[in-house]
Amino acid sequence: MNDKEHDTTVTAIRSGGPDPSLVNTDELASDLNVDLKTGLSDAEASRRLERFGPNELETAPEVPKWKKFLEQFRDPLVYLLLVATAISVVAWFVERASVQPGSEGSEKLPFDAIVIVLILIVNAVLGYLQEAKAEQAVAALSKMSAPQTAVLRDGQVRHIPTSQLVPGDILVLSEGDAVSADARLFSSASLRIAEASLTGESVPVAKNPGTLENAKALGDRTNMVFNGTAVTQGTGRALVTSTGMDTQVGKIADMLSRTDDDTTPLQKEMAKVSKVLGIAVCVIALMVIAALALMEGFHSVDDIISSLLLAVSLAVAAVPEGLTAILTVVLALGVQRMAEHHAIVKKLSSVETLGSASVICSDKTGTLTRNEMTVERVITASGEVSISGNGYAPEGSISLTSEAADLGAAHDGHGPTSLPEHIDQEVEAALGAGLMANDGGLHHDEKTGEWEAIGDPTEVSVIVAARKTGADTEYSRFRRVAEIPFTSERKRMSVIARDTQNDDLLTVFAKGAPDVLLGFCDCIQVGNTVRPLTQDDRDAVIGQVKELSTQAYRTLGTARRPLEVSELAKLPGVRTDAEGEPIEISEQSGIFESHLIWIGMVGIIDPPRTEVKPSIAQAHKAGIRTVMITGDHPLTASRIASDLGIIDPNVGEAAASAASEGEGSPYASASQDKLETWTMTGDELDALGDDRQALDKATAHTSVFARVSPEHKLKIVDSLQRQGNIVAMTGDGVNDAPAVKSADIGVAMGITGTEVTKESAKMILADDNFSTIVSAVNEGRGIFENIKKFLRYLLSSNMGEVFTVFGGVVLSGFLGITQPESTGVTVPLLATQLLWINLLTDAAPALAMGVDPSTEDLMDRPPRKTTDSVIDKAMWGDIIYIGVIMAAVTLIGMDLHLPGGLFTDRSLGGTHAYQMSQARTMGFTILVFAQMFNALASRSHLQSVFKGLFANAWLWAAIAVSVLLQVVVIYVPGLNVAFGTTPLSLEGWVECLGLSLFVLIASELRKIALRIMARR
């Protein structure tokens, strides 16, 4: 094969075809132009490295900091204020130009414009600081690659930088190694690969080099090893077929780079509100200016300037300048509360999204389960026992099942919590044999008190069970002297151990697949005796294996065979050392693994977290559906889902039984009302093809998806989102990352989660506890309720300011708000006064409302639909109603202090300028007080203000601070000049308080009417 043909072959393999798992290794080696015995030469490897590039994952380009900062200004309300600022500056320049040098009448600086710009900058800085951390999901994936990899080159094993791996290289794998590329296995010995981070498989997968007959799912390609996984046992050699972005991890990285972040529902709603307010203000301003032009006309430049300043006043009055900052701070406070409950939120806007979640899609391994294999059942000739306790801590108790308990009671009168002697002997022997035929280990960290599994989790689970039952003490007298290792072809492992209390006794201990191991047994242990194994015994064991399999248990059989040391010399082909112990027995498996005595078997499972079931029930009560999406076996997924209440246990068991009997897809024949109880596999999802309607129907009713790939997870999340759901996706492995990022709210596991998943997620669970998600949902809902409260308060208050300005101009002739001998426009309140009101009332009171206590029925309500507006019709009704009342009492208060007004015709002392300043101070103060009363009223749409009136101490403190600052603005000389105020008399303060109180009274009357209507 020439270089061009070789490059073409390599490119074809890297780009997805042919599938290396379906190609014979000799043929694949020929296509890749490599000798499996010597590997590539350094020269050839260098040429391929230059041709195909380094074995690295591409990283996303970093967004410049200046661009991130400018993004904070992309808001219609900000644009409106910037336009208002520009108008204010132009008007100030024109006014300054028309004033004679040395005369008064113009501000030295454009105070309005400066204050508005400062507020915008402060808001932008706050937003930038909160969003400063750029997304690094693809970069995090590259960290998974091992820095050094063992390869065969020029006939020698070498360690090279992982980035220098090329297609055609031969990986030399051993226990503890990280796999650094996708490769086709061509030799192995007891090789097991931990693929949980890629496929979701909870236990290491046994690998063998045999060619597959047909295409398999990622988790079932037993002759392939994949980048980002790890070797937990054995050795092997594999031919590299894909590197860098062409590996399975690379494809995930590519999906991440093509998955865009969607804006949250709250962000979309705020953008909508901003547009509505902006358009409304512009329309109102144009209407007012047009009305003035028609009624009075513009006779001078001053008239035009006055009209433009009126537009500025309307903009300042309508726009809640502090809305962005308040929203940020309220969300930040919520994030702090969540952190106290182990939920770390990376993006503030995600808090509200989580509170609106209608579906939680959860990975199984490590999320709903403990990711710790546990022996729960032991079945022997005389019965079945259960072992309690989860995890690797050797703490638990042993008890009989109900049937075995009855047998035990009849046998020797013991109760169900005390094992009959014969069953106790059988259980001890079964676990003891599993303990001896074992390469795992259990380590106890004295500092942390934690138990750590060493080696295969399945083997460690047997060690833990043996310690729980005390079998480890009895079998500590045995010393291991020889081993016949486990292989995927043999499906069993045997060791020979010497009894240190009897040097003449050797024992063969074996463990393996029960149906395989049973074939090498001709006797069975009953109690402390041994009898011949009958066909009925064999049928019973096979039936027990099937029963445990339908319950999602992994089964492991154990057996033994006693040997006298003197017998070894009689066994053909067996060699012994000076002490009479056998050596190099791996080729004599047929001799030592014959005439075994069947002891029993264990049922092993990755148990669900005990705290998850009530959390799922609480989520269901809150109208939130839980969906399990896992790469694990359908039987295992169905069992765990049944235990946790995700699917109906009875129908779930029926589905598992049907699947175990090979009856095809239960989904196809299930009735519509039972669809949600079935488990679907990745193959069944593929069978749906591109039919979105069929996929949406499946995802709408199916709650467990097993044997799925990363592409399937994305399809499921996208389908649920198409149906109007707000989807939360939890995960810990690399295979979860694309779906976690694509979901409305991605949730990563903080302890077991991979770095890539954490970077892709918007929230991290520091305790890996599913229950924390439900607590976060509760917190998110409470935050959203509080956001609605302060939005009702802010917008109704700002609407009151708009109506005050609008009504003051349109009704100026009736209210006496005019300038004598002038045709210009006199605004009822100055722009600086309106800006001060917004700063005063938007800050402390709104923030205090953001931490208002949640109501008790928060988790009894269904989740908010994506079609529901944050500001609905009922809230708009509150906003308009309160805005009108607020403007009315403000203008009435001003009219009472102006001559020739609607409510008074009294002659007031002082110049007209003084009278106007006095009236503006009254209107200014009434509006502030009215908004304080509005803060109390806005805590609920229907509930009376007097219910829980003093529940929020922060709100009362904020009101006190706002009133105090208003007093300062009125009485401090420098400030009353800047804000155009004059000191008020005691009578004036009483008028302000009395008029503003009408806002609270009007709100209470409206709530009473609404409650009566609701009851009817």
UniProtKB/TrEMBL annotation:
The record, for Gene3D superfamilies, names: Calcium-transporting ATPase, cytoplasmic domain N (3.40.1110.10), Calcium-transporting ATPase, cytoplasmic transduction domain A (2.70.150.10), Calcium-transporting ATPase, transmembrane domain (1.20.1110.10), HAD superfamily/HAD-like (3.40.50.1000)
Region Disordered: list its residue ranges: 1-20
Cite the PROSITE patterns for this sequence: ATPASE_E1_E2
- Cellular localisation: Cell membrane
Top-level EC class? hydrolase
Q: Please give the superkingdom of this protein's source.
A: Bacteria
Q: List all membrane-crossing ranges.
A: 77-94, 109-129, 276-295, 307-333, 879-898, 918-937, 949-972, 984-1005
> What is the protein name for this chain?
Cation-transporting ATPase PacL
Organism for this UniProt entry: Bifidobacterium bombi DSM 19703
